[in-house]
Design brief:
It is globular and about 50 Å long. It has 356 residues and is α/β, with parallel strands linked by helices. The chain is 35% helix and 18% strand. Residues 28-99 have low confidence and may be disordered.
Length: 356
C-alpha cells in the first residue's frame, strides 16, 4: 500500500509523491520469512492498493506550505488506469502525522514515466530506507500546467522543494533517464540536500537536433487514440517502428501511463509538453554539472540500454566519487524489467553510503 503525499512544487505546482516505505518493509519481511521477495504481481508491476480511512475530511484551512497526505491506490500495473491529473484530494496535514523514520530515498522517473514504474524495484529496497517516488510535473498524477514551465530549472527546483517539504534531506537520490539528469543537476547545485546519487541509464553527452526531430516524428506516428489497452500493448511492444524485436515489457510500461476517454486510450501526459521538456537538455552536454557532484554516485546501465559502456565509464571517471554497475540482459527500462538485478546493484550501494 503506497501512501500518497500531495506536495507543492517550486512555483506552486501540485505534485503527487508516493511513499513505498511500507511496501519495502513488507517485501523484506516476506523474504526473511522464506517467501518470495518479488512475486508475480511485483514483477508484472501490480502496485499496492489501499483506500482512504473512513471518517470526516478536514474542513478547516490548511496551514501555509503544509503537505497533504492521503492513502490511495498507486496505479503500477498495465491493468491499472493512472490517477487522473486533478487537484489533490483533501487530506490530513503532514504535521499531524508521526514523522517517518529510515534513511530517505527519493526516486525520479524518466520522460513519459510515472512513480508507479518504480513499484517492482522499490519493494526490493531493504535496509530500513524510507522510499518515496515522485510524479514529476507533467507526469502521472501531478499537475500539467498548459503554460509550463518545463525547463531543467523547474524540474530541479521541484525535486528540491519535495526534499525540503517532506524533510528528506540529505537524501539518497535515484533517477532514471531524464530523472537521473534532474538528480545529478540537483546534487551539483544543492549538495546539502543529497547524500548519495544513483544514475540509471542517462547519457551526459549531447544528443543533438536530429534526435529531437526523430522524437517529433515518433510522436506524430502514434495511432492514438488507441482503441484498447491491448492495442497499446501491441503498438509499443511490437508494432512501433522503434521496436526491433517484440518487447512485451515495453508495451506494459506504456500501458501504465494511458487513460481512457470517450474516444479511446490516450497518454496521461501531453506529448507536446514531453517534447518541450526534452528540448531543454538534448542540445547540450552535461559533463560540467556531473563533475560538480561531490557525493558518492553509482552509474548503472543496462547492457542493451541507451548509455554505452564507454560513456558510462567516462562518467564514473569524471565523478569525484563514482562507481559503476551493469545489468546483463537489461535495456533502458532496467529498473522496470529487471527489478531484482537492479536492487542487487543499487541496494548495497545505498546501504554502504550509510555505513560509517
Amino acid at each position: 500500500m503506497a501512501r500518497r503525499l500531495d506536495v507543492t512544487g517550486a512555483d506552486g505546482i501540485r505534485l503527487a509523491a508516493w511513499d513505498y516505505t511500507a511496501v519495502s518493509a513488507l517485501t523484506a519481511t516476506t523474504a526473511e520469512g522464506g517467501g518470495t521477495a518479488a512475486g508475480p504481481e511485483a514483477r508484472a508491476g501490480a502496485g499496492p492498493a489501499g483506500a482512504r480511512p473512513a471518517g470526516p475530511r478536514p474542513t478547516g484551512p490548511r496551514p501555509a506550505g503544509a503537505t497533504a497526505v492521503s492513502i490511495a491506490r498507486q496505479p503500477s500495473g498495465p491493468e491499472d488506469r493512472p490517477a487522473p491529473a486533478v487537484p489533490p484530494v483533501p487530506a490530513e496535514p503532514a504535521e499531524a502525522l508521526a514523522a517517518p523514520t529510515g534513511a530517505p530515498v527519493l526516486l525520479l522517473h524518466g520522460l513519459m514515466g510515472h512513480a508507479g514504474h518504480w513499484a517492482p524495484a522499490a519493494g526490493l529496497l531493504t535496509g530500513g530506507h524510507r522510499t518515496i517516488a515522485l510524479d514529476q510535473r507533467g507526469h502521472g498524477a501531478s499537475e500539467k500546467p498548459p503554460g509550463g514551465p518545463f525547463t531543467r530549472e523547474a524540474y530541479v527546483a521541484d525535486a528540491a522543494a519535495v526534499i525540503e517539504r517532506l524533510g528528506l534531506g540529505p537524501v539518497s537520490l535515484v533517477g532514471h533517464s531524464m530523472g537521473a539528469l534532474t538528480a545529478w543537476q540537483l546534487a551539483a547545485e544543492r549538495p546539502d540536500l543529497v547524500r548519495a546519487l544513483v544514475i540509471c541509464d542517462m547519457r551526459a553527452s549531447a544528443l543533438g537536433a536530429a534526435s529531437q526531430r526523430a522524437w517529433q516524428d515518433w510522436f506524430r506516428g502514434w495511432p492514438a487514440p488507441f482503441p484498447s489497452l491491448d492495442a497499446v500493448h501491441r503498438w509499443f511492444g511490437a508494432d512501433d517502428p522503434w521496436v526491433e524485436t517484440p518487447n512485451p515489457a515495453r508495451g506494459a510500461f506504456f500501458a501504465e501511463v494511458m487513460t481512457e476517454r470517450a474516444d479511446g486510450w490516450h497518454p496521461v501526459f501531453d506529448p507536446a509538453q514531453m517534447l518541450t521538456s526534452r528540448e531543454t537538455w538534448v542540445h547540450d552536454a552535461h559533463w560540467d554539472s556531473l563533475a560538480q557532484v561531490r557525493c558518492p554516485t553509482l552509474v548503472v546501465r543496462g547492457l542493451d540500454g541507451e548509455l554505452g559502456r564507454a560513456e558510462a565509464q567516462e562518467m564514473v571517471r569524471v565523478l569525484p566519487h563514482g562507481a559503476y554497475a551493469e545489468i546483463p540482459d537489461a535495456g533502458h527500462l532496467l529498473h522496470y524489467t529487471h527489478p531484482e538485478a537492479w536492487a542487487e546493484a543499487v541496494g548495497p550501494f545505498l546501504t554502504g553510503v550509510l555505513t560509517p
